[in-house]
Design goal:
heterotrimer, A mainly alpha (about 300), B alpha+beta (about 550), C mainly alpha (about 290), A: about 300 residues, mainly alpha, MetI-like fold, about 75% helix, C: about 290 residues, globular
Chain lengths: ~300, ~550, ~290
């Protein structure tokens, strides 16, 4: 177990390094720079700005400087918001976005797994069709549509829930969490149903049933383990996707999160901010993919020996 | 299990069906707290560094320059300067500062503050993008460029604590206008030096606990992506006339989201209306809609260097075959005014020439004369615009008009903002959406952008006569009438050559709650917050 | 069961597919899904002949009107016929949805199977590459693609395929890991079958469940992603449209002109439902374990 995690953490160092390097050089190739505007900046001012942010140095030197600063924990100032350091901005948005992603993930897992298991227990009956149809609607309903729709129904018509904010009024976290989680819940439901169906026809389930174990035990103790493998493989990147995808939801519900910074940094060519958010995101992706792989291995009795023995 | 899910969701919803309190608007009206939609998170609050419109609204609440403007007429009125005199040759301004003008920490605002602030504003390393606002001042441009190193040679001196003398290089009729631009506002020296070097950006002097300002409001709270609150300043010289206790600026992006928040009573004011929703408001809440002409022009730049667009008859044909009236009435819900010139009509009394009109048959003739009868032989033209719902709609309608009237094939291409700017600046386009919003109230701001070496021209068009009229004749004109005549001649030259196509004059358009007073519409979309107040007894009928 | 599997799979591949087709035909819902999908594709292909109006044909004075006899799906802001635009939009969306998903499917399944089956260092390297690709800033990646290769519809498929295969690869790998040590695979190895043979004949068929489910889920996602890429300037440009674009524009006016949202939304949902029924049917039909029933 420990070895498995350690090996993976060691592997993540070159991954992170590759991502940083590739991002650093890629973003410089995109047309337009951070100080380009409709009204062009006076050349002397632009030179001064570039000198201030060391953008006038050779690329390799900028790169080494950046790595050096990064090792000292400094992600540099944001070009778009000159009054703030990149880590200020990330830290200011992180709590709301992380919380939102977590709730959305909970929505996705609870609703998705329940619906998927329900459906798989009685395939091709109403108990299958109804939750699966709802799930499919969830997939067809992009967040930019579901959010405003929920706002109209629960905010304006029923007047049950606040239509914006995060932690300002009771209940204002419900609609954003559902909006962001819905599509993922639908994915989880479909994947869980498929996974469960695969497993339910396997020998060890038949054996368990033949032993006369109650259906509940069969389903939750035995079948779920194998049936959730695709779901878990999906959830690793899904969590990171939730963080990155929270942009739309944050905009609809006016949540002071990270998603807006992440997306706008790319459009603003805010180099340091792009790098900062990318480093942050890739760390999360590595972490959650590791967690997901760990969980998948642990849940699969046939693979559990891997956690003890050989490398991944 | 299925039943369990139904039950669980029922529980969730019944728990959350909570009672909601008063809206921001209702509460704000009782306590004089104004809630403003401000489109985006401010880049910063340093008057010498920010560039955007939304930043300017906050900065105008926090700071005050030598002069300010009347909220409705935009006439210059005293600010920190109580009065001023202008020498006969129009080159020397002497300002008498108020003795009771104070910084929010109690310090007096003195002439020395202005001298130091303008010195700071001219530091190249600061990256002041509006530094050209200082350039009418004697030697300011040369100091900025390093040709003059002694700041005492620059035409700004403190005669005593409360007398400021400004000497200009040339008479500049709109100089006072520039003094209400935030880039010429004073900043508090001790505070800035406490938190870093004068020309350092990236310092903490603009944080709520640190910031010292001289305007009618001071910084109260700033939460990124959530809100920025200013509260009434007790040290402001006119504090007894300021009626709002607080202004809350929200970085809510314009569009349907902002409209929903307005409808729910969370905002007194939206930074724009939502065009799609306008018909509903016209019908149901007409007294919540404010539309007024705005000193800006929506244009299509034409790349005059492309072989098939070199011929001005092609460009004229394109301009004359756009049915602006129909476009605006249908696609844009009547929001704007058709434009046939670059300077909006009536800007400070200036009337632009009417060189052309909508005339599809004349357009067809011109195109035929240019060698492309019914568009035959003319290659497909690419029209680029930066990704936005409104630009897209306009382009779709015009694409069809050109196709129908002239037989021209047009390919639309949206680009992300920076790619679009880059392609426009490097001439990698054929036709490109553009716009210009006045920096100050004077026709000059719309015309000097088209001189041959201007970085904003970007069309490849150049005309020495035009340059001479705008750069030499107009500034040295003795009277406003003579000056406007030069502008008129210059604009006639410009529009006849049609290096770009004027499409419409902008409007400022907002949803604004009837309880808000003192924010009259004006062509600069300018607000003077010290005049604003909320009327808790507003009545729902139109005023 | 395992022995039966090996023996059955050792038969020529053609009979596997023939068997599957025979079973699929028995599944009414799957046949229905296939039928609906075929009809949608045929309609999309025939759009230029069956559409009542031109898709770019405007009538500004008419503007947005609700459904009527002249315009069954109503008209949009420019007075364009929505039925026509939904028909034409289907051409783009179905093409993008099916082709890009196929690209993602091929790359993802190949990558995931190899990584999962070979394991060890190969697996580690391959999956860390996936991790790194997840992390690259997508918007910048798309902008660079356009700068280097220009803006073509072909590029749209590449761009979408290039990102959508990642999760597919992870799911396939996880599934392959869980079956690679099962008896029937070990039996195949013991029989001395080559690795490609084992992968193609035993490993992939036994992972088809999640593959098909995820592939059907990818289609609508891809259709909506296309709308976002069009926003970045890649992909189709007005007056052309797609379901994704129609939906995203319709969402802005859902209170004032709901028909602009409902009809493209229905088209997309219908496609997804059909795909899912077909996908579930295919999964059942191809499941080697139920084959002897």
């Amino acid at each position: 177990m420990l070895r498995f995690v350690l090996v993976r953490l060691l592997q993540s160092i070159p991954v992170l390094f590759t991502v940083i390097t590739a991002t650093f050089f890629l973003i410089r190739q995109a047309p337009g720079g951070p100080f380009d505007a409709d009204k062009p900046v006076i050349p002397a001012v632009k030179r001064a700005l570039e000198a201030k942010y060391n953008l006038d140095l050779p690329m390799w030197q900028q790169y080494l400087n950046y790595l050096g600063d990064l090792l000292r924990g400094d992600m540099g100032p944001s070009f778009k918001y000159p009054g703030w350091a990149v880590h200020d901005l990330i830290l200011s948005g992180l709590p709301a976005t992380a919380e939102l992603a977590l709730y959305a993930l909970l929505v996705a897992i609870i609703v998705g797994v329940l619906a998927g298991v329900c459906a798989a227990l009685k395939p091709n009956t109403a108990q299958d069709y109804i939750p699966m149809s709802v799930a499919m609607l969830g997939i067809c309903m992009p967040t930019f549509l579901l959010g405003p729709l929920l706002v109209l129904v629960f905010g304006f018509w029923l007047n049950w829930l606040p239509i914006s904010g995060w932690g300002d009024l009771p209940g204002d976290k419900i609609m954003p969490s559902i909006t962001l989680g819905a599509a993922y819940a639908a994915y989880v439901a479909r994947l869980t149903r498929g996974g469960m169906l695969d497993v339910m026809s396997q020998d060890y389930i038949r054996t368990a049933r033949a032993k006369g174990l109650p259906e509940r035990v069969v389903v939750f103790k035995h079948a779920l383990r194998g049936g959730l493998i695709p779901t878990i493989a999906f959830l690793g990147p899904a969590f990171a996707g939730l963080l990155a995808g929270s942009f739309v939801v944050e905009t609809i519900f006016q949540i002071p999160g990270l998603g807006r910074f992440y997306v706008q940094a790319a459009f603003n060519r805010d180099y340091t901010m792009i790098l900062g958010t990318t480093i942050f995101l890739s760390t999360l992706i590595i972490f959650f993919n590791l967690l997901s792989d760990l969980l998948a291995t642990w849940m699969n009795p046939k693979l559990r020996h891997q956690l003890r023995g050989q490398s991944v | 299990m299925f039943r369990l899910i139904v039950f669980a969701s029922f529980i969730v919803f019944s728990v959350t069906a909570c009672v909601q309190g008063d809206s921001n608007v209702e509460r704000g009206n009782r306590t004089q707290v104004l809630h403003i939609g401000n489109n985006a998170e401010p880049q910063g609050l340093d008057p010498h560094q920010v560039t955007g419109v939304n930043e300017s609204y906050i900065v105008l609440a926090l700071f005050e320059g030598l002069v300010s403007k009347h909220p409705a007429t935009l006439e210059i009125q005293p600010g920190v300067a109580e009065s001023w005199t202008v020498s006969d040759d129009g080159r020397v301004y002497t300002f008498s500062l108020r003795q009771n003008a104070k910084w929010s920490n109690g310090d007096a605002v003195t002439a020395h503050d202005f001298v130091w602030s303008w010195w700071r504003g001219l530091q190249p390393a600061l990256g002041n993008q509006y530094v050209f606002m200082y350039f009418p001042i004697k030697n300011a441009e040369r100091f900025f460029n390093g040709e003059v190193s002694d700041f005492s040679k620059v035409g700004v001196t403190a005669i005593d604590d409360f007398t400021l003398r400004v000497e200009l290089a040339n008479p500049t009729p709109y100089f006072l206008q520039l003094l209400d631009h935030y880039s010429t506002f004073p900043v508090h020296r001790a505070t800035i030096e406490k938190w870093g070097e004068p020309d350092e950006s990236y310092t903490r002097w603009t944080r709520p606990q640190n910031m010292v300002t001289n305007g009618p409001f001071e910084l109260d709270d700033w939460r990124l992506n959530k809100h920025l609150i200013v509260r009434k300043s007790q040290t402001y010289w006119g504090a007894d006339k300021v009626r709002l206790n607080k202004i809350v600026f929200y970085p809510y992006e314009v569009g349907p989201n902002e409209e929903r928040l307005y409808r729910a009573g969370q905002l007194h004011y939206t930074s724009e209306t939502s065009i799609d929703r306008l018909p509903w408001y016209y019908e149901n809440k007409p007294h919540h809609v404010s539309i007024a002409p705005y000193a800006g022009t929506y244009i299509y730049r034409i790349n005059n260097k492309k072989p098939h667009l070199k011929d001005k008859r092609v460009r004229q044909a394109l301009a004359m075959s756009i049915d602006r009236e129909t476009l605006i009435r249908t696609v844009l819900n009547g929001l704007f005014t058709p434009a046939y010139s670059i300077v909006p009509p009536g800007l400070l009394g200036y009337q632009p020439p009417q060189v052309f009109a909508y005339d599809p048959s004349a357009a067809r003739n011109l195109l035929a004369q240019a060698g492309y009868p019914n568009g035959k032989g003319l290659p497909e033209i690419e029209l680029q615009y930066n990704s936005s719902e409104q630009h897209r709609k306009i382009a779709i309608a015009i694409q069809q008009m050109w196709n129908k009237e002239l037989g021209i094939k047009v390919r639309l291409q949206n680009k992300d903002w920076k790619v679009y700017l880059d392609d426009e600046a490097t001439g990698n386009y054929e036709i490109s959406r553009g716009s210009w919003i006045a920096d100050y109230v004077d026709p000059n701001t719309f015309l000097d952008m088209w001189v041959s070496d201007s970085g904003i021209n970007r069309t490849g068009w150049a005309n020495p006569n035009f340059d001479k009229l705008v750069l030499k004749d107009a500034p040295s004109a003795k009277t406003r009438k003579a000056r406007y005549k030069h502008f008129y001649d210059a604009e006639t030259l410009l529009i006849s050559d049609m290096p770009f196509i004027p499409i419409y004059t902008y409007s400022s358009h907002h949803f604004i709650h009837p309880s808000v007073n003192g924010m009259p519409p004006n062509i600069m979309n300018y607000y003077n917050w010290r005049y604003v107040y909320l009327d808790a007894d507003w009545r729902a009928e139109p005023k | 069961m395992t022995v039966g599997n090996v023996i059955m799979d050792a038969e020529p591949g053609a009979s596997l597919w023939a068997d599957a087709w025979r079973r699929l035909k028995k599944n009414k819902l799957a046949v229905f899904g296939l039928l609906v999908l075929s009809v949608l594709i045929v309609i999309a292909l025939l759009a230029p002949w069956i559409a009542p109006y031109g898709y770019e044909q405007q009538n500004l004075e008419l503007g947005a009107t609700p459904p009527s006899f002249a315009h069954w799906f109503g008209t949009d802001l420019f007075g364009r016929d929505m039925l026509t635009r939904v028909l034409y939009g289907g051409r783009v969306s179905l093409a993008v949805g099916l082709i890009a998903t196929f690209v993602a499917l091929v790359i993802g399944v190949t990558w995931g199977t190899i990584a999962g089956y070979l394991g060890g260092r190969t697996d580690a390297v391959m999956m860390r590459i996936v991790d790194a690709l997840y992390a690259l800033p997508f918007i910048i990646f798309i902008i660079l693609l356009m700068v280097v290769f220009g803006r073509s519809v072909l590029l749209l498929f590449v761009a979408i395929g290039a990102v959508e295969w990642l999760t597919m690869a992870r799911i396939v790998r996880a599934q392959v890991l869980s079956i690679r040590n099962q008896e029937f695979v070990e039996a195949a190895r013991a029989m001395g079958l080559s690795t490609p043979h084992i992968l193609a004949k035993h490993v992939v068929p036994n992972s088809l469940g999640p593959i098909i489910v995820y592939a059907t889920l990818t289609v609508p996602q891809v259709m909506l992603l296309e709308a976002f890429l069009s926003f970045l300037g890649l992909g189709i440009q007005p007056p052309q449209s797609s379901w994704g674009l129609l939906i995203s524009h319709g969402a802005n006016v859902m209170e004032d002109s709901p028909w602009l949202l409902i009809f493209p939304g229905l088209a997309l949902s219908l496609t997804l439902f059909a795909l899912n029924f077909l996908g579930d049917g295919l999964r059942d039909a191809l499941d080697p374990r139920v084959s002897k029933d």
